Each structure stands twice: as structure tokens, then as C-alpha cells.
Amino acid sequence: MTAPTQTLTVTIDSATAAKLQASVDAGTYPTVTAAARAALETWYDPVQAKEEIRRLWREGVESGPGRPAEDVFRDLMARYTDIP
């Protein structure tokens, strides 16, 4: 069952409208409405965002020791340099 919908009229600047249209033109979304809906669905309130950041931070700390970024990038370059 889908959630009930409500039609709203929202005014946005031309740069934002262009980004929405570009996502449709690229085939990412079927319509500008779908693109706008996806953008709004990812909008967090500040409390939820902080909780999510804390959860992700804990998850990272609990996953074990880190590695220097230089080592990670060197390994990635070695792995993916020869891919056509």
C-alpha cells in the first residue's frame, strides 16, 4: 500500500531546477517529480543526522584498526591501474 500523497507548489532557483532536470536527462529518474521526491526523502532533521553520524563512527571504530590513506590508495592504484 502506498502512502497518501499531497500536491504542493514549491519555488526553486534555476540552478536547482537544472540539477533536477539533468538527473532526468541522464536517466537517473523518470521525472522531475521523482527526482525532487528522492531529494526530499534524503533530507534528515539535525537530530537524526547526528545519530546517524554517531552510529557510523561507532561502527568504524569497532571494525578494527585503520590503515594509512597512502597505503589504501597505493593498493587501489595497483589493483585498478590495468583495467581497460
Automatic annotation (TrEMBL):
Write down the Gene3D superfamilies for this protein, in alphabetical order. Antitoxin ParD1-like
Top-rank taxon: Bacteria
Q: What is this protein called?
A: CopG family transcriptional regulator
Species this chain originates from: Elstera litoralis
